[in-house]
Amino acid sequence: MTVRSNGGLNQMRTGICDMVAVARLVNATLVIPQLDKRSFWQDTSTFKDIFDEPHFIKALEGDVHIVSDLPGSLQSAPRARKHFTSWSGASYYEEVKELWKNQKVVHIPKSDSRLANNGLPIDIQRLRCRCLYQALRFSDLIEDLGKLVERLRSHGKYIALHLRYEKDMLAFTGCTYGLSDLEANELRIMRERTSHWKLKDINSTEQRYEGNCPLTPNEVGIFLRAMGYPESTWIYLAAGEIYGGEKYISKLRSYFPNLVSKDMLATEEELAKFSNHASQVAALDYIIAVESDVFIPSHSGNMAKAVEGHRRFLGHRKTITPDRKGLVELFDLLEKGDLTEGPKLSALVTDMHKYRQGTPRKRYGSLPGSKGRARLRTEESFYENPFPECICLTGRS
């Protein structure tokens, strides 16, 4: 089975582990997947540039036979191209096995979300966890620079903030609150020119009130202060280039001066090795976010979900997920002058997030009213919360 993994780093990581589980279900040999070089980031990294390939193969040898390349004897063999149906269960793959009776090589052009979140055999679910949290280790180059965690810890505890206030996210979601007309128009043009983004005409105000927009840097600052974090708190910014740059990030820094990024913690020489390789840089952010004392994502994207799931697997480490819909109402009251920063706002915000800090809970099911296959799409991601299949009640995995 050959695979082309699609998407950004964490979409590829979870997709690869889905493919490992699928290979086990259909009893196929898996060829090391090809990584996406056509996504927004245009990263040319190969599998071994990002992951420890020998460790990956060795760690899973008891579950799935994995090879680095397609054997020479099969290079010229005809290949069947198969798009596996999204959110499929074990019975679907039992039927798909028939493909290998007529074809020696089957190519899978997309790897993401090929497996259901629920209803799979327990051994398959645990294999997905074993793949993601143990076998799919980052390359030595990336792991070595993970020493940035030690540099952060030399100042004490730190928050890892995944601030998704980036151009692609704002354009995709149509979120323009607080931006100039020129900036909003720039994002609209980007959305219209990106062919695989299906939704073009978006009402920014509705998006914000529905809680679909990432928090702005200024909103994050207000939120963190209301949650009781002092000005001296160290915050690691796990993010790509912030839209608007210093114009917007300065508002957050005015609240929390100890706001740092990899560019401030690592030397130019250390970072030069990752130049023009966004996925490798994202892997570095991932490591620092997983190891943080508190992880806070400003939007529920692939990295946020993957980090939260990993932290749950490691013992339900503290992850605060902002209630964006509820917070918008409070931010608007502040803007109108009907509420001020202080004890009252703090009480409202802390109460709102009492049960949003990563404590043990089972995965959420599908949204009420959803039907058919769309219902499966609305379930909470297995990789966002692998409880209870991969996590003991004590928090040990």
CATH-derived architecture of the largest domain: 3-Layer(aba) Sandwich
Strand order of the largest sheet: 8-7-6-9
What is the rounded distance between the termini? 30 Å
Shape: globular
Helical coverage, percent range: 40-55%
- Largest sheet descriptor: 4 strands, parallel
The proportion of strand residues reads: 5-15%
CATH topology of the largest domain: Rossmann fold
Number of helices: 20
Instruction: Give the averaged pLDDT, no decimals.
Output: 94
- Output the helix-strand order: EHEHHEEHHEHHHEHHHHEHEHHHEHHHH
Radius of gyration: 22 Å
Going by helix content, strand content and strand pairing, the class is alpha/beta
Q: Uncertain segments of ≥5 residues (pLDDT<50)?
A: none
Subcellular location: Membrane
GO molecular function, one term: glycosyltransferase activity
Pfam family, one: O-FucT
Family: Belongs to the glycosyltransferase GT106 family.
